Amino acid sequence: MVDPDVDSKVEEILKRLVSLPSSDFRGYWTPQKAINEPDASRLASELNEASFVEFKRISYPDLVRQALYPDDYVDAIENFIDWHNDLLQQIHGHLKTFPDEEGKYDRIERELPTQSPAHWAVSQSLHLVRSNHPPADVLSPPNLEFILGPLRALPRLNAVEILEQHAVLEVRFRRSYLYAHDIDWTRRFRTNVNLFTRVTKTPAQDLADQLTDSDLTVFRSLSPQSVIDEDVRFQQLNCRWDRQCLAISEFLIAHRHLIHKAMDICQLLREMRNFNSLFAFLQALRESSCDESNWQGLFDLINPTRNYAFYRKIKQEAPCVPFLPPHITQLKRCQEKGLSEIFVFLGYRPGNLAQAQSLQKPEDSSNRKQLSLTPWTPWTLGDLISCFPTARRPYSQQ
Q: Keywords on this record (predicted)?
């Protein structure tokens, strides 16, 4: 249900966001700079960069205000639009004075990212010159709908939830745009914060169980051939891990009080031998600059020395849900051993915690999901292929 006072609280909520001040730098580009430069690609790059510098002057709270109140331009966004309108007029005047430059600006237009504000300014200028219309006839200014649209579509929650949500999204905004070297003007801003919501509302043990169930489902969709070929399914698994790691680090930076709960989840994932999600949490914790001194045993796992030698030694103790990168490196060195290391999750089974005394504290004896630590031997390539009868054998086995 919508809080009737939400709109009246928006300004107070935005004031509480820990927002970095917008950039003081101004974008600078004029047609005069381009007169003696024949390289259209270089000119397009410089123009797009100048436009991007202007974009960085807009803060996240500015965008939220604009999304909530679309009829009233926020100063920073109005300045951004005015800068591009001035650019349009400068290019239009330049092309009227030097019509032989029109071919160069055609090439610049083709080099600029489609739907970028700079592309809008150049394409509108060319259109107005060719149709013999004045700049006042421009129908619509460049817009930031790729960010404003998703922000406008956010559900209206209570004031506390709105503040928590926007704190996470502001971190994502800074990473995606302000700290980036370039910007994709067509990619819509992601506003999904489901993992943050799950971490805040779900008990640590339940969340560790859910993450492990989800990881196992994804890993079981792999075949040895998908790993060897690094096919679409394999790439999706890697992208899924990257997104998970980013999402965790975003909410840990925005909400430092969740670091302790994140460490509790890490301990549970370690006990359950789910190294896939464990590594995502540990990497995110490191990126959020948490104090690692009290958790050195866990952080040793993500030490990349000798292809994550410490982790690979621990992993050999029993079946697990693996962290892929070191095993892919091993796969390239020795196909059979690499595949065997990846597919150890096939031996992962729920069991009783009493079977894993060496991995857990006595006081934690409860019915947690845990692998059965019965004796096992590493999978051979033949064992793996037999588990996936529809998979093609590697060329070395044909």
A: Guanine-nucleotide releasing factor
